[in-house]
Amino acid sequence: MVMSMRGGLLWWRGRGRVWRKAAGYCPQRRRTNPELSPTKSRAGRRAVGLPDQLVDLLRNHLKAQEEERAAAGKRWEENRLVFPDEHGRSPSHRRDWSEWKDLLAEANVRDGRLHDARHTAATVLLILGVPERAVMGLMGWSTTAMAARYQHMVDAVRTDIARQVDGLIWKPERDRPDDDDGAAGALVPAN
């Protein structure tokens, strides 16, 4: 078997075939690149506001994690991860994927990739009317093109835009002249 690195990807030859695997993995399925490394850019290191309910959930999670740390004893590796495995390490990608799928099923949410949650978050911010600049800061984007890629137009947004245009162009009902003689819409007794 012959292995080589080209373009950041690991290639190997064997039995007349050429195999390609993502960078950082070897044919024996052992990770060769570091699991923990600095973020790609400054945008990866940013402060975000969290809803109070999420803060409470994270505090409860931290308490449970402290119990896991105590149970692991000397096997615990302190990596300051929010969601480590039972030994404090980064969970395997397969386990992470499996837990994500279980979480979706338990919450009765349609199946999707973990990355799809970024699209959902961006679209929720659009529905809430959060200014694009604020969305870019929260999501770590440097260009508005990313907002166009991640935020999806939904009926709630279309309806809100139509309501706003309606209020801008036409007078509200109470300001329209009353040309009604008063009888329209009134119940008339049958004789």
Describe the structure.
This protein is mostly helical. It is built from 6 helices and 3 strands, in the order βββαααααα. The protein has helices at 52-72, 93-106, 116-127, 132-139, 144-150, 155-169, and strands spanning 2-6, 9-14, 17-21. The chain has a 3-stranded antiparallel β-sheet, with no helix packed on it. The chain starts with a strand and ends in a 22-residue tail after the last helix. Mean pLDDT is 78; it is low at 1-13.
Which strand order do you get reading across the main beta sheet?
1-2-3
Tell me, briefly, the overall form: elongated
Q: DSSP strand (E) fraction?
A: 5-15%
Low-pLDDT regions: 1-13
> Average pLDDT across residues?
78
Query: Could you tell me how far the N terminus lies from the C terminus, measured between alpha carbons in angstroms?
Result: 99 Å
Give helix % range: 40-55%
